[in-house]
Structures are given as structure tokens and as C-alpha cells.
Amino acid sequence: MIITIVMNSELFLFISPASAAPLLMSKSAIRFGQYCCEQERPLICLFPLWSDISECIPLLDQPQVFVRSLSETGLFFGEKGAAAVLNKSRLFGRIDKCIEGIQPGTIAVCTDFPAEDHSGQKALAREMIAFIKSHHPGIPILALDRKGNGQWAGEKRFSKKSFVPLDVLIPARTKKNRPVPDLGRAWQAAGPVLPVWVAPCTGGDALARQLSCFGPSARTVPAATGAFLFMAGSGSRVVTLEKMTAVLGPWLEEKSSDTPFGIQIPICKGFDAERAESLIAHLKPHGLKLILWTPAPEAPDLPRALLWQVSGWGIWNHVSGPALFKNTDPKGMGAWIANNPNIVHSFNSLEFSPEQPPVSKNQLTAPKEIQSYGSLRPPEGIPFWRLLGNAGNILAALCRMELKPLLRLWATLDGQTAFTLGQALEFHYKKPSDIDRKTMDEIVAMVDAGGSVDITHVRANLEKAYLIAYATENGVIAGNSSLKHPRQVFIDRLHQSTGLDFTHFVERGYTSVRPEYRAMGIGARLLEGLTLRATDVKVFSLISEDNLATQKIAIRNKTRKIAVYFSDKVGKKMGVWMPEHMIEDGWEVDS
């Protein structure tokens, strides 16, 4: 996706071929980006699919710089990690289409690569320039080296001696205010996100040498410079979290406490979640903002409890891996990722097409069939993190925003306007007779999607309910709950199990909140509103003993547990809860 900006002769387009050494190439992108920022020139950077984070490298603290990926370029990563272009015509075709779409005034291409260029990137860069010259002869092309110098691509062959500083090649411009998309600056990073690859043999000195590639302050990088994303690799050369923590130790001690960073944690067989929790807790106070979880194909599942804990610490969870949604089991890893955006905050699933040669594509949406609420009308727009696209860009945004504001930040479908999900919620408390059939159908579907109750009697019970509450935003139901009259057979069963008589009570139940709206306090507000309006009846609710999240909501709403019993129907212990002000003196309350 290319974000549209006002096109004119001052727009720069930076293109880089795939690289076997992305760290070297990133320096060229960053320095060219810095030059464009100094000159206030609008810039779009295009990168083929190197890895999860490659396209994020030059994301700078300027509203006129945008980074996008040519996601379907026909690239294939070999065993050694070097990118080999197996479908060159497709790569060039995508570039041609992008150039036609944005009409840049100048195109800059990275041309300087290591002497041992085993994957042929120098030749590819020269072919790319020749292709652009033949298809877009009116657009000047600027060849760049790693030092940020350049030369115009003419008839002569490039030579290292002919690269000169950009301010010599390009006349300084009069600074003007340039229009930018209506996305504001909320998602812009404080600086570039710089990837650092940690190998099994990496030590503190080797890490320092990598960090020194990005500036004179090798370890004590101030927050204004940006963030680091420490990559642990994959396959047989994967770096354990234990090794990663040891390597980062000296840097953590010396760096600015305000410098944010993220880490990759591979999930393999035998992953020790308890040890990982301890190590993450150690890294947290040093500025850890994001964890890139990469489950191996043979990994049975994600450490779900650990991700829940990490989310509670305010750390962003991004899951990336091949075919995350291949398993359509409603209790499998893919369904859990799709239905818990308050725990797995973002993801990308690498899907491979059957084409020859194989082509990979990042999937940023989960299939509808594994989404619990997939059959219902979704909220308007898309999560903003999908525009950012990968862990690196999301980490860049987290340099400016905390987890919850970024998670609630959404964008219109055209990608041009950002808004906060949940800011326009409306709460409704109605008798069943006052609810139209369409809304009642949606409430029934919401209860069914929640998956916690037998749907058989839901509609009949709702139509006879004491009161129904639901929250909407732009016509979409975000959550609902109710005070319903329990059936006599259920009252008798409760009396037999607890010794308490609930004949003249109403039961709070059928609560369902869409995954996108969770952690916004909707359930608590619905419960509070229903309780306040129950003026002539007493209220109770059933909460399973293992549902700690709902118990916390109940406690915050001054509700107490009065009894516990074992339910044969659900096969677990259930707690009976009541609002404190409705509990009569002399009642024995379960502690």
C-alpha cells in the first residue's frame, strides 16, 4: 500500500534491491532519509521483502518520510539467508507500477555493496537502473553509496571516485510547508528502528561493533536517535533468550534508560516459559517495548500465559511465522491469535503461494472462519498496526505511544485518516420489548460468538429478560449483557448445590464483548449500569473459578462472591456473585 501524498518534482523515491547484508544497505537509506529531512523533501522508501523488519529501517521523525514494501517481488531466501531474485521480471514490474502510481521527481537507488557480493546485488542494482531509465526516461536517477554520497546515473559506468556529497549534486531548495496525509504525527517514530542481528557466537564486543555502524555513540544511544530491534535468527543458528540477555547485559548497563528496544524470541520445542518470564522481567525496566515471537513450524503452541503476562506489563506482543493460520482448530494457536488482540497485539503470517518459483506473502488478517465474531459486522476501519505492517514499524510507533493508545488507534479503509476505536461508544439499557428485531438478532449472535453458553435457550431467555444492555459504535455492537430471569429448573439445581434460594432473583449473564473492544472497560460499565437499574430485584451472577479476568471486573464493581459449587454441566467449580449492597446482614458469604 502506498500512502498518497501531493506529487511534484520535489518528491524522492528511494529503491533498494534485496540484500544479503541489510545492515550495510540500511546506512544508505538512513543517510539519504536524513538528507531529505534536512531539506524538507518528501520521500518514499520502497524495499523488497528481506525479512520481517527490513522495510522499517529508515522510518524517521519527519512527517514527509514513508516506508513501504514491495511484498510480492518474487524473492526467495536461501538456506544461508541471502536473497536470490528468482523472478526478476516480477520485481521490476512491481517497481514500474509503483513509479507510475506516485510519479516521483527523482529516483534514488542503492548501488554500493560489499566486495564479496555473492548474491549478485551490484548487478541487480545496475539492471534496475537500466530498466527504470528505459521505462521512465524523463525521471533522473541518483545512484547512492553507503556513505550517503551520490552520482547521477548517466551513460558512464559508476566509479567510487565519482560519488560526491548530495548537497553538491542537488541544489538547496527553499523550505516550504508540504501537505501530508491526514494521519498526523501520532505514529511517527522518534528515529529509525535499527536491526541488530545477534549470532550464537556474538559477544559484547561484537555487539558494540554492530551498534557503532549506526553512529559515533556505540552503546549510549539517546532516545532521539531511535530504537533497536535485536534479532535472534532462525533455524539451527537461533539465539536463545538466555544468550540474548547475556549479550545485551553490558549495553543495558551503559545505555540511556529512555532508549526503547525490542527483541526477537524464537519458540521451539522445549521452550521454558517460566525461565523466559524471569528474563523478560529483567529486561522490562530497561526500555523493552516489543517482543517479536517467532514460533518454529514444529512448535506445538505459543506460551499463552506468558504472552498474557507480558501484555499486562505493557509490552507489545507481535507474532510472526509461517502459516500461522494453517490449523483451523477453534482452540488452536491461529484461532487464539485471531481472537485475543488484547494479548497478541499484532501478527504477520508468512504464506507461500503455489507458484513456481515459490513466492511468499505477509498475511496481516486472520481468516474469518477462525474468528469467533467473524460472521458479525466488524467495526469500521482497520487496526492502524496493519498500515505499519511489521514489528519494526510498530516498535517505531511505540517510541511515541504507549501500548493501549496504539492498540486502539485505527484507520479508515483508505488509510488516510486515523481515529481512536471506542471514542464514540454509546450505551443502551432497554426492555426486550423496546429492542427491534435486527438488534436482537445481533445480540443473540454476539452471545453465540462468545462461546460460553448453550445457544438453545438464549433467544427465549433474552425476550423475557428483565433488562438488556448493549454498547454500540457507529451502529456496530461492541458488547452486551443482560439481567435475565433464570428458568425454574436452574433455580432448583442451584438450591440443591448451594442451599440458597434464587426464586426472586435475576441473573446477570449473556455478556459478550468483541475482541477489538476488550480492555476498554465496556464489560464493567455494562455491569454497573445494569446493577444501578435493578431497583426492585436482587441480582446474582455465575463466574467460573478459573475466570480471573471476569472476577476482577466483578470486584471493581463492588460485587462479592457468596458461594461456590461444582457444576456437573460445565465440569468445573462456579462462584455465585452478588452486588455488595444487595447482600443482607447475617448471610454467610464465601471468602
Strand order of the largest sheet: 3-2-1-6-7-8-9
Q: Radius of gyration from the CA trace?
A: 28 Å
Which stretches of 5+ consecutive residues score pLDDT under 50? 1-8, 19-25, 49-64, 69-86, 173-191, 213-225, 355-360
Shape: elongated
Strand fraction equals 15-25%
Record keyword descriptors for this entry:
591 residues, alpha/beta, 7-stranded mixed β-sheet, 17 helices, 29% helix, disordered N terminus
What does this structure look like?
The protein has 591 residues and is of the alpha/beta class. Helices cover 29% and strands 24% of the residues. It is built from 17 helices and 26 strands. The strands form five sheets. A seven-stranded mixed β-sheet has the order 3-2-1-6-7-8-9, with helices on both faces. Strand 12 (261-267), helix 7 and strand 13 form a beta-alpha-beta unit. The longest helix is centred in the N-terminal third of the chain and has 17 residues, at 22-38. The radius of gyration is 28 Å and the shape is elongated. 39% of the residues are buried. Residues 1-8, 19-25, 49-64, 69-86, 173-191, 213-225 and 355-360 have low confidence and may be disordered.
